[in-house]
C-alpha cells in the first residue's frame, strides 16, 4: 500500500514502490523511481532521473537529483542520481545529479547524511558512510565504504576519501585521504590510523596492526614513496587491506594529504 498525502505532488509517470509514504508538500518528478518502504516525511523534492532503493527515510526540506551547480552543465544533458537502500537523509540535505551527459551521482547503502550536508555532482559515495552536519562534498569526489566525514568539513573536487577513513570536523581536504586513516586540519593532513573506525567496520586486531605498520612505513621512515610502496608489497603480499592503501597511493591524482613531521609523535 502506498500512502500519499493530499498536499504532495507526485507526477503520474513516477514509479513508486509498495509501502512508500510520501508526506505533505513533497514533490516527485516524472523520471523518479522509488523502491519499496521509503518514507518521505515532508517538503522533500526529488527531480531528474533519480532512483532511490528501499527502506530509506528522508527528512524535511531535502532535495535529491536536482541539476548540478556546475557551470559546465549543458541544457539537454540527461544525468542521473542513484541512492541505495536503508539510507537516512536528514533535514536540508542536498544531493545533486551528474553534470555531463549520461553521468551519475551515486550514494550506496546504509549511509547517514546529517543536516545540511551536501553531495555534489558526480560523487561516488560507498556503503555505511556518515556525512555529518553541514559537511560539503564537492564534485567528482569518491568516498569509500565505512568512511566518516565530520561536521563542517569541506572536501575539494576530485579528492578520494578512503575506506574506513575519517575526516575530522572543520577539516579542509584538498588532497587524497588514504584508507584507514584520520585526517584533520586546514589543510587536512593524515595524522594516525582510524583504529576505532576499523574496529567498528569489523577489522581484526591483526589487520589494525598491519595497517598501523603500513602507515609507519609510508610516512615515518626516511624513504621515497616508491620505496615505501615496494616495502609494503614485500611485507604484506596477501593483505587485502594493505593493498587498498597501496592502490590508493598509486592511483592518487591529487596527491596525498601527507602528515607533517611534527605529527609523528602522536601516532
- The CATH class assignment of the largest domain is Mainly Beta
Strand content range = 25-35%
Considering DSSP H and I runs of 4 or more, what fraction of the residues is helical?
10-25%
- Number of DSSP helices? 4
Task: Kindly report the average pLDDT value.
Answer: 95
Number of strands: 28
Question: What would you say the CATH architecture of the largest domain is?
Answer: 3 Solenoid
Radius of gyration: 20 Å
Q: What fold name goes in the CATH topology slot of the largest domain?
A: UDP N-Acetylglucosamine Acyltransferase, domain 1
- Per CATH, the superfamily of the largest domain is Hexapeptide repeat proteins
Poorly predicted spans: none
Structural classification: alpha/beta
The general outline is elongated
The largest beta-sheet arranges its strands as 1-4-7-10-13-16-19-22-25-27-28
Major β-sheet profile: 11 strands, mixed
Written description of the protein model:
- The strands form three sheets. This protein has an eleven-stranded mixed beta sheet with strand order 1-4-7-10-13-16-19-22-25-27-28. Strands 2-5-8-11-14-17-20-23-26 form a nine-stranded parallel beta sheet, with no helix packed on it.
- Helix 2 packs antiparallel against helix 3.
- 16% of the residues lie in helices and 27% in strands.
- By secondary structure, it is of the alpha/beta class.
- The protein has two domains: 191 residues, UDP N-Acetylglucosamine Acyltransferase, domain 1 (3 Solenoid); 61 residues, Udp N-acetylglucosamine O-acyltransferase, C-terminal domain (Udp N-acetylglucosamine O-acyltransferase, Domain 2, Up-down Bundle), CATH 1.20.1180.
- It is elongated, with a radius of gyration of 20 Å.
- Strand 27 and strand 28 form a beta hairpin.
- It contains four helices and 28 strands.
- One of its GO terms (cellular component) is membrane.
- It comes from OM182 bacterium MED-G24.
- This is Acyl-[acyl-carrier-protein]--UDP-N-acetylglucosamine O-acyltransferase.
- Keywords: Acyltransferase, Lipid A biosynthesis, Lipid biosynthesis, Lipid metabolism, Transferase.
- One of its GO terms (biological process) is lipid A biosynthetic process.
